Amino acid sequence: MPHKVALTRLKLTDFRNYASASLALDGRHVVLTGDNGAGKTNLMEAVSFLSPGRGLRRAAYGDITRVGAAGGFSIFAELDGMEGVVEIGTGIDASDETTARRLRINGTTAKTVDELTDHLRVLWLTPAMDGLFTGGSSDRRRFLDRLVLSLDPEHARRASDFERAMRSRNKLLDEGRFDPSWLSGIEEQMASLGIAMALARQEMLGLLTRLIEESRETSPFPSASLQLSGFMDGQFSRPSVDLEDEYAATLAANRYRDAGAGRTLEGPHRADLIAHHREKQMEAARCSTGEQKALLVGLVLAHARLVGNLTGHAPVLLLDEIAAHLDEGRRAALFDLIDGLGGQAFMTGTDCQMFAALGERAQFFTVADGRVFE
Ligand SMILES: Nc1ncnc2c1ncn2[C@@H]1O[C@H](COP(=O)(O)OP(=O)(O)OP(=O)(O)O)[C@@H](O)[C@H]1O
Ligand SMILES: [Mg+2]
């Protein structure tokens, strides 16, 4: 069983509909119930800011600050983290809602938000992700990269360096500057970063697939089979230097085509995640709404188990409206599965009776109008 990482305190100031709120947590799961618009998802969003990035809504910071507040918001958390007890503060000052958010860990200003991953990993599943399999490929790519990122925090830097190199190439092509020495340098950089990204995705999917395979018999959810497509399909068993050479050669050979298109047409930025419902042998996009949801829940929980296995610490899980469409038996099975992951999960719903099967395993809070009561 991986070690538990658990929040013991969460304080919000001018965050969304909370002027100020403070929750004392005892390490068990956290159930948040209340009416629509009460502030349940907002609380989860606050916890999601304990991981790098812009949180589970990918919000602009200016939208997060409470309407009517002077400006800026802050989140403070105390937790039993991967390196022991830690205090984390993050937020935005009144004066600069457009810049990066501030982060303090144990009172010291952190250099980058990536330092958060030394203390905890946060994974989430929200209703906004329900259309993942039917929507655009960029959402699936982002989902995939978040899966990789929670195992390998370096993935973010590779992706942003690749983006930067690709933008330089696109700009040179756009300006008609086909100087081969300039372009080859950039393309070699794109090749080494792009192949590293693709291999990291492939490796994570391999591990996840193995784990899904192993737990197939015991999981109450359908199992997904997962493939990458759209970039270097089926080639990942070849040596990475060969793949890099091939991708660099492809880029070099397609400069005029890409100049005409106004963008780079081949690369890891075009990859897609293809999921199948394994038992039904059906592409996820063609499964029913309920089947797609079940696939997604199974996938996210399998990934949570993988993160626990590989880091030795169970991730904090944010499961927004997870129990909404499940019957009583499936709900109880889901709670057992979540509990069996060994970490702390935050769950929301409109009715606390839905969570009765959790019993003493959870702490229950009522959320109403931007206030929280145990
Ligand atoms: N910056 C902000 N300032 C003030 N209120 C905000 C801000 N951003 C969002 N809100 C409000 O916060 C309220 C609670 O939103 P939240 O998404 O947390 O509700 P919820 O409890 O999850 O509801 P549901 O059950 O419908 O999902 C909403 O009414 C929303 O309009
Ligand atoms: Mg909500």
Number of strands: 15
Proportion of beta-strand residues: 15-25%
Spatial strand order of the main sheet: 2-1-4-5-6-7
Query: Could you name the CATH homologous superfamily of the domain at 1-129 and 312-374?
Result: P-loop containing nucleotide triphosphate hydrolases
What's the N-to-C terminus distance? 29 Å
CATH level 1 class label of the domain at 1-129 and 312-374: Alpha Beta
Q: In which range does the helix fraction lie?
A: 25-40%
The name of the CATH architecture of the domain at 1-129 and 312-374 is 3-Layer(aba) Sandwich
| Small molecules in complex | adenosine-5'-triphosphate, magnesium ion
Count, helices: 9
- Give the class from helix and strand content and strand pairing: alpha/beta
- The chain-level mean pLDDT equals 94
Q: Low-confidence parts, pLDDT < 50 over ≥5 residues?
A: none
- Radius of gyration, taken over Cα atoms and rounded to an integer in Å: 22 Å
What letter string, H or E per element, gives the SSE order? EEEHHEEEEEHHHEHHEEHEHEEE
List descriptors:
374 residues, alpha/beta, Rossmann fold, 6-stranded antiparallel β-sheet, 6-stranded mixed β-sheet, 9 helices, globular, binds adenosine-5'-triphosphate, binds magnesium ion
